[in-house]
């Protein structure tokens, strides 16, 4: 692995915390916890680029390269390369369009990111438990079973009332993953206080390395 999960977690924490402070400085009505997953992904991307990573978005999983159409197949949120180098595109391999410093997908870090909030602008999030449990476990399974991926991780960003709720709920999530045989390793953890607008006092960031199953 060319970079540790600690370094990647540091980069994401720095970017998200900075964005939250910017919203506070602007006295924005809506905070960072009001942004959905799609809105937070560009902020995560910018955070990783600022830390020196190359970032490719929505890349097809290696196992899905057999699909003739580029639009077919499941996609990974982020694929990271060191030193802002480009990711090798399979169609350009060994051609004039193949950048000499391109990183082979097997040597890149494949990162799925999920954002879950305990509260929404309408109140308590009724789908909180289901959003945390089912789709997130599916991402772990996809990353672990693809033989074309050697380095992978799952990034969880969880907005909660306090640290007690976050630790309790993430402990349940980890236990269920391990009971199902999903190969997650010990995460790199961060807790960041935020201004309470919706009921959240913190966001918790955990980056779990994912092994081959």
The DSSP helix count reads 4
The strands making up the biggest β-sheet line up spatially as 1-2-3-6-8-7
Question: Would you identify the regions where 5 or more consecutive residues have pLDDT less than 50?
Answer: none
Instruction: Briefly note the structural class of the backbone.
Output: alpha+beta
Number of domains: 1
Describe this structure in words.
There is one protein chain. With 213 residues, this protein is α+β, with helices and mostly antiparallel strands. The chain has one domain. The protein contains 4 helices and 8 strands; from the N terminus they run H-H-E-E-E-E-E-H-E-H-E-E. Helix 1 (5-25) crosses helix 2 (37-50). It is globular, with a radius of gyration of 18 Å.
Question: What is this structure's SSE topology?
Answer:
Elements: H1 5-25, H2 37-50, E1 54-60, E2 75-81, E3 109-117, E4 119-120, E5 123-124, H3 128-145, E6 151-160, H4 163-179, E7 188-193, E8 202-209
Parallel strand pairs: 3-6
Antiparallel strand pairs: 1-2, 2-3, 4-5, 6-8, 7-8
Helix pairs in contact: 1-2
Brief account:
By secondary structure, the protein is α+β, with helices and mostly antiparallel strands. Helices cover 33% and strands 24% of the residues. It has one domain.
Structural key phrases:
single chain, 213 residues, six-stranded mixed beta sheet, two-stranded antiparallel ribbon, 4 helices, globular
């Amino acid at each position: 692995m060319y970079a540790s999960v600690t370094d990647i977690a540091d980069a994401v924490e720095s970017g998200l915390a900075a964005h939250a402070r910017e919203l506070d400085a602007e006295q924005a009505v809506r905070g960072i916890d009001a942004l959905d997953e799609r809105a937070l992904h560009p902020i995560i991307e910018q955070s990783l680029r600022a830390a020196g990573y190359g970032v490719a978005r929505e890349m097809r999983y290696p196992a899905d390269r057999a699909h003739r159409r580029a639009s077919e197949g499941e996609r990974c949120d982020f694929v990271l390369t060191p030193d802002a180098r480009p990711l090798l595109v399979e169609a350009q391999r060994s051609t004039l369009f193949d950048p000499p410093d391109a990183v082979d997908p097997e040597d890149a870090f494949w990162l799925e990111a999920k954002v879950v909030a305990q509260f929404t602008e309408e109140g308590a999030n009724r789908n909180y438990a289901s959003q945390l449990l089912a789709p997130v476990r599916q991402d772990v399974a996809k990353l672990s079973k693809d033989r074309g991926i050697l380095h992978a991780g799952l990034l969880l960003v969880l907005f909660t009332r306090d640290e007690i709720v976050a630790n309790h709920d993430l402990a349940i999530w980890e236990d269920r993953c391990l009971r199902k045989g999903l190969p997650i390793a010990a995460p790199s953890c961060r807790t960041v206080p935020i201004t309470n607008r919706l009921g959240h006092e913190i966001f918790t960031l955990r980056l779990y390395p994912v092994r081959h199953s």
